[in-house]
Model the fold of this input.
Amino acid sequence: LWDTSDSPYQYKGAALGVFKEGTAFTTEFIQWDGPESPNGQTYWFALNTKVVTPVVEVPATAAITKTTVKPVKTDPISANLVNAKNPTKPTLALKTLSETKNQKLSASYHGYKLQYKPVVTKSVADTDKTNTNGQTVAKNATQLYTLNHDNIYANLKKGDKITIIDPLEAGAVPDVAVTKAAAEKAGWGVAYDAGKNTYTFTATYEGKRLDAPVITWKPIYDKGFYDNTYKVLVNNYEVFSKTVTNYTPKPPKPVKAVLDRSGKDINGATTFDRNVTFRLMTDYSPYTKTLASAQAIGKKFGIFDNVQDKAFTVDHSKIKMTAAGKDVKDLFDMYHVLSDKGRTDAINKILKELNLNPKGEFYLWVAKDSKSFYYNYVKQNKKVTIDLPAKLLVKAGEKVKNDLKQIDFGNGYQSNLVTVSVPDVNPEKHALDQKDNKKVLDGQEVQIGQYIRYLLDGVTVPTKHDSLFQYDGSDQLDVVHDRFTGKWSGIFKGTEYTAEKDLILTYDVILKDGKVVKAGDKIAKGTAYAFLFEVNQDTNPDFLKKIVAVKWDEKAGKWSYVINQDFLNSLGVKGTFDADFYLEVERIAAGKVENTFINTVNLQEMTAKVTTTTPEPPKPEKPGKPNPQPSLPNTGSAASMLPVVGMILGLLSLAGLRKYKK
Done:
């Protein structure tokens, strides 16, 4: 640290100048513009005649010589007495005036002018009259500038005019009415220039000292720096007061989060499970060094949650409020207002004190004892955490938004906004050809004895989602019309995953560059990967049970699967996931066949259906008695042709036989 008056490093980067003639000089100080975002950097330039580095004086040299002092002999003293004679008495002879001459008398003197230059002082205090100079004070907490000027009266005479000019810092907002009334009561004329934020106090000295003007003001900016100096003009003499300073804390940053049942932050994600927790966390870190008056503390401390109307319900019995590991519910009054009409006069009064004007439903917690809460929690930076267990009421595809306000000393500070939505997805069910997946038989005819496959197309879980604890499926077969052959297969697919730590998985994964990491090999932390693998009735049981459990209830005609929970947990909350299954059946009866698939993800049940038809097989015709045909008389032509026809047929058959033999 070098930019303080007592630092031994304050001369670093300094320039030394020596006067060779005259007593005045000018200098130009150029400040580098710096970056667009200075991040709090400042530039410090000081000018003084102080020599900081130690002055080394040239030591004097001396040689010590031993000497011998010889004894001194004294001479004898003698005295002779002298007889004195009385002096002659003086005589007085008077002269006449005419005999005298005028004498010129002269005197010399030096002219001196005594000039007294008084100094004036300034002070700043809060409403408790505590000195706040150099202190951090609460934003919007009343401060008092006192313009002390008693020293100027030593040089005043009646009729002299006194003028005090005080330009206030930007963000220092005066109470114009209070300041004016107090100054005029003390005998001052008051003028306030709002454009320049400057006060001018004037008075004519009538032989009596006037009370110092007091400016009542509030600092309205967060992370503000307020310095102030005033000027006094009297008898063509100008003097400036010392500078007083105040600071305000940086704005706190309360945090809002939305968590799934496993405690994972799902802000901006979708959630199949409609049961979530909205978490509110205050931030009191800026106030550890804040000097707060009783008036500032009395402005209350609160936590405000502006609920999206009819978007969710909260289980009040399960609300938790903690600070430093302790339950602090009893330190607050809680208000839950459902609508504007539900506000009472008492609630409206509290909202006014906290500078809140909400619309519709909201939650509000107010500290019962502001003073105790300030010293035991705010001053000690013990943040308060509120957990609101909620159930989402919005429709599929709709989004819920939520944030909070932290109110300190009557000042509100907004948190981040969190969002969560219910996914608008549905499973699908299809009838497919036994061997060709592209041949879809939905709504078509399937013949008796024909083999087909049912596709149970589960929903695709979006990239950002809640923690998966359930992904099940069940297919209700129509066993009157379909016979399950026992053959099934399942395809598992996941994309957009990133390893949060070094992983070893039981299945192969594919990296971005197409490289395959085999099951059992390490996947390095930070690696992006995807996976795609298939299982069926012949898969190794030891591997299968780590992925999915399959069940066939022949009596009920229900085929179902339950994906392993440990496998689901390993997927985290970022990355897509999809599971599809194929069942093979034989159509054994005619009729309209409806097949229903239920896919359940984190308690959200979704349904898909497919319908096919099978016609009745054609019935064989029963043999009937032949009816006699009427015949015409034979004319001889037909009879004459028969031998010819018979001979042709015989030759054809003979030729064919010979060809066969050859």
